[in-house]
Specification:
This protein is 51% helix and 4% strand. The protein has 150 residues and is mainly alpha-helical. The protein binds zinc ion (ZN).
Length: 150
């Protein structure tokens, strides 16, 4: 019978079997990555902050029940919850996050792309808000009704 790691902070590399720390991103012996689906704390926080009302951060974390955020997004409640979660995600203890959501902080290029994407959405929203601020564009729904083909 093979001996087990002596405590929870030591595990075996899934490729070469060397004893490594349970939060190690890479095996020091064979250089293999130890986690296939790491979830970045920063990305999760940003997703919750900007797209949390749709449950996107929950889908990112692999939690299917993010669908409830999506279904209830019309009420605005998920957005408030997500805002609180965004703060919790971004301020969470790094070690705790790692042990719960993955062993790495995610690859930096992925974080960069997601961050830039969110920044872009944010700027578009700000721009839309500024443009929408100019007076005299009340939505006229009657025109839409008149355009029905029947
Ligand atoms: Zn290894």
């Amino acid at each position: 019978m093979p001996s087990q790691p002596t405590d929870a902070t030591q595990v075996y590399c899934r490729y070469c079997g060397t004893s490594i720390g349970h939060l190690d991103n890479l095996c020091p012996a064979c250089n293999a990555e130890q986690n296939l689906k790491p979830r970045s704390q920063l990305v999760a926080g940003l997703l919750a902050l900007f797209l949390g009302g749709l449950g996107v951060h929950r889908f990112y974390l692999g939690q299917w029940w993010g669908i409830f955020y999506f279904l209830l997004c019309w009420s605005g409640v998920p957005m408030l919850i997500a805002l609180v979660e965004a703060v919790a995600f971004l301020t969470a203890d790094k070690q705790h996050w790692k042990s719960r959501y993955g062993h790495t902080d995610g690859s930096s290029w992925f974080i960069a792309i997601v961050s830039l994407g969110l920044l872009f959405i944010f700027i578009v929203l700000i721009a839309a808000a500024l443009i929408g601020d100019t007076p005299a564009t009340p939505t006229d729904f009657s025109e839409l009704l008149l355009e029905r083909p029947d």
